[in-house]
């Protein structure tokens, strides 16, 4: 994962498997697993990056990554897609998905397009 532009984490882990120290500046993480209030796949350092979720409400109820870290949610994906919020490509971003596959696909395409530009 060190040096990767995009990292996908999709686990049913109870403990973090991705550490923020491993991520380079400007990387993007799609975290699509650990979707229960007792499961974690991201350590607290990962969650101190720019955190985007598909739903603030769902993240606060279902994601132990968000709940246990006390992470501040920077935006919902819909706010990014609609242009109401902007995240510079130089920031390390985390998309914590709780089950909307279309958002995963669109997020990955946005990152891919930004990298290719």
Top keywords for this entry?
117 residues; Rossmann fold; 5-stranded parallel β-sheet
Quick overview of this protein structure:
Helix content is 32%, strand content 15%. The chain has five helices and five strands.
**What is the CA-CA span between the terminal residues?**
22 Å
CATH architecture call: 3-Layer(aba) Sandwich
Secondary-structure class:
alpha/beta
Number of helical stretches of at least 4 residues: 5
SSE layout and pairing:
Blueprint (H helix, E strand, L loop, with lengths): L5 E4 L18 E4 L12 H4 L2 E4 L2 H7 L1 H6 L5 E2 H5 L11 E4 L4 H16 L1
Parallel strand pairs: 1-2, 2-5, 3-4, 3-5
Description:
Strands 1-2-5-3-4 form a 5-stranded parallel β-sheet. It is globular and about 40 Å long. It is of the alpha/beta class. The protein is 32% helix and 15% strand. The mean pLDDT is 92. The chain has a single domain, classed as Rossmann fold (3-Layer(aba) Sandwich).
